[in-house]
Amino acid sequence: MALLTGSNKIKTSVFISGNGSNLKSLIKFSKQRKSPILIQLIITDNLYAKGLNYAKHYKIKKKIIDFKNKNLAEKKIIFELKKNKIDCVCLAGFMRILSKNFIKNFKGKILNIHPSLLPKYKGLNTHQRAINKKEKFSGCTVHFVSSKLDSGKIILQKKVRIKSNDTPKKLAKKILAQEHKLYPKAILKIFNP
Ligand code: GAR
To answer: In this structure, what CATH number is given to the domain that contains residue 22?
Structure first.
């Protein structure tokens, strides 16, 4: 494998809306020599996102984008991505659906992590729905973003067993721990095949 230095790594932006634990794991990964990505920009739709603390801690540029007008918000994001020469976007708990236009206008790769074994349980409340259906397994998926919600090409998945006493909260915690490992693995898979 070729040695990657800061200057030839893929300039990446992570989009978050909340806690940012996946952002934290991606930042830690990006600091490893083997990482093909370098995180240069954090975008959020939520001024109060807890994950913004990581921008401060790791001294990464951040942009808070008001989504009251989605069209305008997406234009502002595209402008920022171009300005910062971003080639890869990682959605990490970003709770907005990007428009077809955005996906068409951004020329780089867009990835997402979703807390279910797609194509099962697209959208919200995945853990509650998997428990209600008495599934034996759930898990997480990293996939390319397409214009249909949670439907782009799957890169990697990790199965997690659902125990009979699992609550949505317990299951979410178990799956989140796996997400933190899966996202970096998926990035390695697509950029260092
Ligand atoms: C993660 O479980 C992620 O898979 C999920 O939100 C959580 C964010 O946690 N994303 C979605 O549900 C997107 N449809 P984090 O902010 O601690 O990374």
So the answer is: 3.40.50.170
